[in-house]
Amino acid sequence: MTTRDVSLLIALALIGLGVTVCAAWWLRFPLLIQVAPGNAPMQFNTALLFLLAGAGLMASRFEAERVMRVLAAVVGLFALLTLVQYLAEVDFGLDQLFVRAYLLDQTSHPGRMAPNSAAAFILSALGLFLLAYPRRRVVAAALGTMVIAMGMASLLGYMLDIKAAYGWGQLTRMAIHAAVGFLLLGGGLLLAYRERRQLAFEPFTLLPWRGLMAALFLSILSLLFWQALRSEDAAQQRQQLQQKATTEASVLASLARERLQTIDRMCRRFSEGIYGSMQDGQADVRWFLEMMTSFDYVAVHGPEGKQLVAQARPGLDIGVLAAAAPPLMQEPGCKIDGKDVNIWFSCARADAGGRLWQINARAHLEIVALNEIERQSLEGYEVSLHATLQEPDKVGTDLVAYDRIPDPLPPFWVQVRALGPDPISRQSRLPDVLLVTGLILALLLAVVSTQQHRLRLANQEIRKANEELAARSDALAASNESLEQFAYAASHDLKAPVRTMVSFAQIIGKQDKKASIESVSELLDEIVSAGKGLYGMIDTLMEVSRAGRIDPASIRRVSMHTVLDRVLKRLDALIRERDAQIEIGELPELETEPHLMAQVLQNLIVNAIKYQPGEKPYVGVFARKEAKGWVFSVADRGRGIDPKYHEEIFRLFRRGNPSDVEGSGVGLATTRRIINGLGGRIWVESTLGAGATFRFFHASKPILINV
Question: What is the strand order of the sheet 681-686 is part of?
Fold first, then answer.
């Protein structure tokens, strides 16, 4: 299965996921929306954006750039507006635009996609958009890697039961199949980048993009899990503080109740006349203030509101305290009143005559609270008790938890404040250790992959040099063979016309002076004819010699269809004369010498037409891709070539067929020298009576070898 096939499957899977969940919302099929009861549901808008993103990947697969950009813009804009709704605490009416939400598990806003889902869609949309721009595609790959990391973090959060990994704060959480969808979407972006990466144009080809993307993935995943673990730790710590605050509230309520009961008993003793004298009552009040360190003022009022006893701790103004005391009660009872931590306890009791006796006492219960905190070893925090009829202001970073003292007492509030550093600084070090470890591993991965990539490039350079060396060795062998052919031509083929000229000259010299002028003229004509033939053979040898020498400046990228069209126009008369059928397959663009390639194709096509007897000869021109270049084929349906002549026909002045077809025997030799000069090779596949196919290999980037 190829990369393009996998990319297509991912696009179809995303489209299928989006269609399935959208249909499940319309058909009210919860199992496909939230996987399991209680899990976060995939919101309708999330499924819709998965559908559009999958369609964008499909458009990328078929190179529909405009459609891809439009879909990416729609996905990104919708996700951005959703994120703005969270940040600005507004509602644009997008959440339930298409369907009314009826599954609200782990959902802060009905129908609104999770904020981390919106962020992942924004990254995905930007990646899709950048795929259309070659010099920005590596950024698209990086964005796809970040999307994969976000999906993986959420998926691991579900597996490890870390809610902060798949949800931010108390906001809507990402569904488990949405996490899988983001894994697919990010992977699709990476595959699309790989498909579109053009090595000749991409400016980042010298970088180990796979290793760097893996390092980026590990870094983002480490950061996301660090944030999730810190959030979970903070939540657990706040829960513990809440529990401690609740416990403290109960303890302080009991202490307040005990003090109220103590004041009540003292008031009963005064009203029932238990004290033998007022001096005994005053002594009891002094003893009370000494023993109950939280009280700083006690005042006893007798019948008709007369103040009988008023005592305070040293340093306090009794007059000020008396003025701040609650008013006298009109009937028996007890109450607590006050603000902050200065709490007033009031108890009124009637004597035998129905007259009211009342005690007002002020306590500073924060002292008791701090003692209790120290007893529970909650270092770094203070707990203060507020006796007030209104809830204290909750605004402030240090307000961690508070609770209400239960009835029958008035609404007390326990406030837990951090002393010194933020409570977060006292959390577990494990998230920090994991973050540092992940970042170090990512750095090591990036360094190792970079070094491996450099070694790989060095090996490629060495392999390329070896290939060039091998090609030059082959070219040297071909050059030596050409030299042998030239030597053979000089020693054999060129001798024939010279021998003819010498023989006829000798005949003229030996003839009698009375020989007819006509006979001498005929011999001279033969000598001239042989000389012209010799001259032509020398020109041919020079032409073949020049064919193997290629100027590097003439190499340029051309379409082989264009080159072939030029050749067919030159051969139009021959094609029409023979009524030849020319079949042309898909031909590539190549870096080559266009004029010499035209000469190669022309020689092969002319031979294919000439060596097919009868009418309507067939010629097929095709090409197929190979690892390092292209193999071109020129096929005919002629008489074929005996295998024993497969090498012979590429030699100078050699022909593997009967001489009933005109030819000099240099066309294939010239063709071989051109192909060898471009660093390629040429061969023939044929048997007698079955036609012939001439094939030649041309590298994607030719290695010029002058032969």
Answer: 581-584, 618-626, 629-636, 692-699, 681-686
